[in-house]
Each structure stands twice: as C-alpha cells, then as structure tokens.
Amino acid sequence: MKLKSGLPYSLLRYGLMYEYPKLERDIRTDVLIMGAGISGALASYRLSRHGIDHIVVDARTVGLGSTCASTSLLQYELDTPVCDLIKLTGKAKAEQVYHCCREAIYEILDIAKKVGTKDAAQKSSLYFAARKKDIAFLTREYKARKEAGFEVSLHTAAGLKKRAGIKASAGIISRDAAQIDSYLLTHSLHQFAIRKGAQVYDRSEITGIDHHRLGVRARMANGTTIRAKQIIYACGYEVSRYISKPIVKLSSTFVLASEPISAKHPFLKEDLLYWNTAHPYLYMRTTPDRRILVGGRDLPWSKAVEDETILKRRTKLLLSDFQKTFPQIPFIPEFSWSGVFGSTKDGMPYIGTYKGKPNSYFALGYGGNGIVFSQVAANIITDAIAGKKNKLKNLFLFDRN
Q1: Whole-number Å distance between alpha carbons of 155 and 29
Q2: Burial 270-287, CB ≥16 within 10 A → b, else e
Q3: Cα–Cα distances in Å, from 374 out to 191, 209, 220, 366?
Q4: Over the stretch 29-71, which tens digit does the pLDDT of each residue have?
Q5: Which CATH class is domain 123-178+250-341?
Q6: Which fold has domain 4-69+183-247+347-400?
C-alpha cells in the first residue's frame, strides 16, 4: 500500500538520515517488532529501556511510510469528543482514555529530550468552531473536559481574535498539547535502541507469519526466516491482512506547507495547535523554521487519491480554508503531500492481543492522535512482555465493541 504522495516537509528538511541494513540471514530474537515507523520505534525504545532483546524489521526504508507524512500534532483529544465518547463507553472509561493520552504527550516530550530530538515543543491546543451552530457543541465539550479535570478555557469570537488572531465563533483552548517531528524522532529512537543492542532492518519484507505455542516464525521475501518468542505488530494500516475482521476505515489526508512567514503575524506568536469542528476537520501548526502546515480535506482512501491532480485540487482548497480563517496572514504555498490514516468507530486504537494469534501483540494507534496512541501502546505491550501490571491493559482490546 502506498502511504504517501507528494513531498512531505519532514523528508525534505531532514532527508535520508541513517542507513539501516537489509536482513539477509536467518535470525532469532526474543521479540520481533514488525514496522519501523513511529509506532515500532516507540515500542523499541521501551523494550530497550527494559533490556529486552529484540529486532525491528520494515519492508520500506525507515520512516518513509505514514511517519514522514504525519504533521505530528500531539493532543489528548480523540477524533471522538469526550462528550460523545462518554455516551459510547461510559463516563469513567472515556475520562480514563483522555487522561492516559494526556500523560502520553508528556512522556513523548520527555523521551524526545532523552534521545536528543530537538524538534519537540509543548503547546496548547485550540479547538474552534467551523460554523456558528457548533457553539452549543463546544459548550458541552468544554463542560465535559472541565468536569474530567482538564485545564481548559472557553472563548468567544472576540476572545479568539484577541488571543489567537483567528476568525471563529468560539473555541476551547486546552493547555496540554505538543508537537514533534515524528520522522526525526523515529530515527532518534532507533539510534538509541541500536546503542542498547537492538537490531533494525529495513527494505526487508515479511511475507508470512506462523504462530505456534512457543513463539512465531516470520518468513521473508528473500527466503530467510526470523524466529521470535513474541511479535509486536506495529505496521499500522497494512496490518489488515493479519486481522480477520474489519477494524479500520482508511482515508487520505492532505497537507500544504507555506514558505517561511514573517514573525509579525499573530498566528506565529501564539503557542498553539489549531483544529476545528468540521468533518473532516481542518488542522494547523507552525514549524521551527516558521512555516505553517495546514491539513485536512480528507477523502476515502483509494488508488485514485494517489493522483497528483487530486493532490493539487485538495491543497488549493486547504489554501482557501486557511485564508478564510486567517485573512490577515499571507500564505505562499511551497509544497504539499498526502498521507494515509485510519479511523475506528469509537476513535480509539487497538492495543493488545488478538484471538488466534498466540505470542503476539498489536500496536495500532489509529486516529488523528495516532502518535500519542503509539506511546500508550508501547507502555502497555512492554509491561505485558516484562510481566508487569498495567492499569490500561484492557482499555483498547479488539473485543471491546
């Protein structure tokens, strides 16, 4: 599956950072991580911190799937608002999900610091009304978050104009958010794990996996095999061939990057991530080199989405969306791209074991805050492998529906 098209900002800025070998021999390990993107990298980091022997294998060059296409907004908010999630799961569970995502944001910032990733910053998040009729919904959502113990504030149109320079009817500002560069962090995590003894292989395709009572055997396209006691599936949207029931809906999201912007504009003075109540929603952030990334205008994923003509059309619409929201800021487009993401019925990830797949764990951080979910998954799965208790272990199971 092609997980991106166009020219992602992260890949253009950092290029091909490190060279990883192909796996060209039979090998044994305690844990095999399938997937070397951000999900696999966070899992590898946690295993390394616990001294657990493991290898990481990816069919692509490291980071060149959805990881480099991500705009890397870190938010505790799911695609399903907490006031709606409460109706689906109950108040206690919904609030627990939101709080564990909040904790994961600060864990990621701490990890980024430990592995030397500079492009990471704590932010606040502005969730603003796409239409006037969304004010009532935002009021309900604000009350639900406030009651759940989150540090949030509700703003009117005048307040938002003064606070954030944005043209919108209302909005919620949440204190707890962040941004990173997931491509840069992925490589930093792998380099840390390699120094701790992990092995990372790319351009090494696994064509089949046999599960048995004592472990797993992965068969490679070149005829070699990997034998492991356990496997972590961290290959994201391509995991569907290993799961018998449909669990995710795939979409393509589109992103437009500006030329560097002057410092005098309010958008760049505010320490905020922006997203709105539209379906699909518009999302925006700045970069360390003073660009603006604008994303959204999602379409159901299909081969047709890979058409460059569609990319041009969607990014033209994104430019219009931005100009309506920030009419005072000149936005000169420089490059654009699209990436694949997955959504679930309740907006939550799938983390843990799956019936019929012994000795395996799944780290499937679907949704708009998939990187945050990947950190949650790394914690849950590593604790399970290490024989430690984790209070979240039953929160994101496959049979929750």
Answers
A1: 53
A2: bebbbbbbbebbbbbbbb
A3: 18, 22, 25, 9
A4: 999 999 999 999 999 999 999 999 999 999 999 999 889 999 9
A5: alpha beta
A6: FAD/NAD(P)-binding domain (3.50.50)
